[in-house]
Amino acid sequence: GVNSISGSLVVNKKVVETVTFNLSSVEDETSIENLNDEVRWEALINKLLRQLGVDDSEIYLSIADKDFVLRSFEMPLMRKKEIDAAIVYEAEKYIPFKIEEMQWDYGFSRSLKDKKSSISFLAIQDERYQQFVNIFNHLNITPTVIEPAFLSLVRSLKTLKSVAAVKNF
Question: How far apart are CA 63 and CA 128, in angstroms?
Fold first, then answer.
């Protein structure tokens, strides 16, 4: 979250425990005001990991959706290699930042009937991404996945039997 951190311990695709802490709780506990934001986040992450009793073997980091740009658009029907070559130029039309200043990825699906490729493009500014990476580097943790919160929600929902059978979720 923007001012809080939450963590869930998942074992065999089941949520075993969930914990949430507010960013302000670090200063309350340490009696030190005006801590650097990065230090406050590091302290909260450590506290969260201790509370959940987890190691750093597989950390899925969900970042507030506001930090990401998600755009969907269509392109002519193409093979993956052709999309790889054209995606940068096409995506630049839909994002408010320079593509060189972003960490990004995309997914696509093809419609043979419509002769189009539907593209889902996801990006985060390098500077913001690096802030998260630096915090975890200081803790000697490499997250397995870094994604927006809505994708983490989808990942969680997909573990439910009632949703798992839904195609193209």
Answer: 10
